[in-house]
Amino acid sequence: MNVQYLKAFVLAAQLGSISAAAREMGKRQSQVSQWIADLEIDFGVELFVRTGNSSRLSEAGEILLPRVIHTVSQAEKLAVCASALARDEPMILRLGVDNYIPQSCLNRALSEVLQQETLNLELYSDDREVLLEQLTNDELDVALLSESSVLHYSDFQYCRLGSYCDVLVVGSAHPLVAETTATKTTISADQLAQYRELIWTRESLSAETEAGYSPSYATFSEIGTVVNLLTNAVGFAFLPIDMISTELESGKLKRLQPDFEQAEMIRRVELVWRQGLELTEQGKRLIDSIKASHTFTR
């Protein structure tokens, strides 16, 4: 049994005749007819009912057709995959995203990349130092990181993409909302200190990070829990605006302006990848898609 024989059967069924299938494949009609006849011998059933110069699918042919279509499709994918492996193309790409970077800014880029059926993508979240260590150990191919003081990576390729913005938010029924007026539009650090701070973090608070804006706080690893508590008028939080845009638009959350942050709280983002990845077709496609289609502020 040959994949070409299976393809001939599929085309004859889809195009309505063996002669049309032969034209599509660039083969002689007699050759395609023989291939289908050989298939019928292999299967032990008639695939077409032939009357004069016309033919139509038999009952057995109708049952087998969807399975043969699937088999031909898988065979074509197998050929593409084998060809890519022969060129040392990666079949799996591992993308790590810093815990606090809004992954929604990658939606369009990932949609483009995943149109490539032969590529499998594994996406992880972790803190910055862990992702850099995984890149060093070849456990990760690409990482999206919060920008640090490092000016140049000698061990990796990199690109500064843009930024996202953290904002101060509370639930619409929180008392802090009533403390802003037409003449006083900002909130002071002293006002914040009277309420509980909700901290979204996937790391343990250290001596460097535990000093927040309030002596009363609670930490959570899932942003959804923070948002639910905020909408129930519990506490305040600083969160990436891209991750709470729906709640802000619906009015469930209110954005407040702290008087100790005159400018927007901008968090810059950088794309880092292992050496040589951009020389592969799949790696270059992922890198180029993220560069071109991310929705961070440029």
UniProtKB/TrEMBL annotation:
One annotated GO molecular function: DNA-binding transcription factor activity
InterPro entries on file: LysR_HTH_N, LysR_subst-bd, WH-like_DNA-bd_sf, WH_DNA-bd_sf
Keyword Disulfide bond: no
Residues in coiled coil: none
Keywords recorded for this protein, A-Z: DNA-binding, Transcription, Transcription regulation
Protein name: LysR family transcriptional regulator
PANTHER family in UniProt: HTH-TYPE TRANSCRIPTIONAL REGULATOR, LYSR FAMILY TRANSCRIPTIONAL REGULATOR
Domain (HTH lysR-type) ranges: 1-58
Family named by the database record: Belongs to the LysR transcriptional regulatory family.
